[in-house]
């Protein structure tokens, strides 16, 4: 029975929120080193106010797990779990405790790190508070899950519900995060690890700036499928979008903001890992070049039904051509101009074609 509960709740929870965890990891651990994290933890251990903020964040994570469990219990395909309440209370509660512990594992691991540091510095009050809060979160989560099992009527108790009006620029990133987390994880992990690896490789030998450009080219091509995903998303959910009275530059600006948000984690990774031999302004230009490259790929893929074989052949040819251009010394400024001017020109031509048709 426990393996079934883990499959329904624990695995599904991590699979559905894989994109969220990736974003948190990139922001928290891609931009801050372990030494800086240790300094933040030390500050929290000696500051009751700071430690309370950490506990509030953990409580919000608990609410997310509870919301997921409640939704799963009321899903039509999981109605058979209503018979789970026939299991004796001690065994049932023990299973819920195991499930809730598994779902709270990320904050438990972080709490374990805090406990280790608290032991080193003798912060016994903070250590006791951390242990009590973690135990309380697990117990409360298990009790609320069992409460919904015994009271399946959704109207008996409601969790706080927050409605946020999303701007258009967040429509696709939110959809990508919720509905296609595996694609998001693979895309951003490939891009982020590649850029970080190239930055770490740079000081090991006598490389020049072309190495960073090659890494940037591969990271951009790693996002080659995103334009098609955006196009498919809008055809399915935003059919009215093409009929809105928006000029081509307004449409281009909206897509530029959207891709800027998608490309933002790479900026944090570059700022965190860029070699000391490279100037900071060059890193910023490098990131802006990648942003323009994403916009160019979007303009080439959006609205077209391209066979996957032809698209992959085009990506491979682009890599070979780009690699040769980089090896012959094409500077980052030229790549920046090519990306953005190509994207603007493609967007303008597409708008003119729609008008003529």
UniProtKB/TrEMBL annotation:
Q: Which residues cross the membrane?
A: 12-33, 39-61, 68-87, 93-115, 127-145, 181-199, 211-232, 252-271, 283-304, 316-349
Top-level taxon of the source organism? Bacteria
Identify the keywords attached in UniProt to this record, alphabetized.
Answer: Membrane, Transmembrane, Transmembrane helix
Keyword Transmembrane helix among UniProt keywords: yes
Q: What is this protein called?
A: ABC transporter permease
